[in-house]
Amino acid sequence: MELLAPEFCGMCADAHLPENEHSILVASTEMTHVRLVRNQAHPGYTVVILREHLTDLGQLDAAQLSAFWSDVQRAGRAVDRAFEPRKINYLVMGHRAPHLHCHVFPQHLEDDPLQNVDVSDGPVYLADAEIAASAAVLREAWHAVA
Question: What is the pLDDT of residues 67-118, one digit of tens each?
Fold first, then answer.
């Protein structure tokens, strides 16, 4: 049960930081942090992390749920604008990191549509300048779709 406690939660510890080992901060709202994942096996792969340490959608009241999904939708629109995927999948899991977050997972034309979605594809780690440029493009798209 240690993973469920905020004091042991990696997302609570570093979701607000400009950069961490897993991702780069793109935007923050009152409800979430939006982060570009370093593993870019699927260009534009992003996560939307709830600021508050909760572990399940069922813990949100109606207003919080609406705000969370609004941020997820906006992140999806930004990914679509910046990376032009053919489809975006939205995954809320949390078995390994039980802090409420949604994977905004783009599928591109070259991706096999019959292959199951796997957030651990790759990994493909871009050079520092390339990932910074991708984050900047996504950040610009985030502001454009407001």
Answer: 999 999 999 999 999 999 999 999 999 888 899 999 999 999 999 989 999 9
Q: What is the DSSP annotation of 33-74? A: EEEEESB-SSTT-EEEEESS----GGGS-HHHHHHHHHHHHH
Written in H, E and C, the secondary structure of 69-131 is HHHHHHHHHHHHHHHCCCEEEEECCCCCCCCCEEEEEEECCCCCCCCCCCCCCCCCECCHHHH
For residue 15, the 8-state DSSP code is T
121's CB contacts (< 8 A; 6+ apart) are 39, 41, 42
0.90 exceeded by the pTM? yes
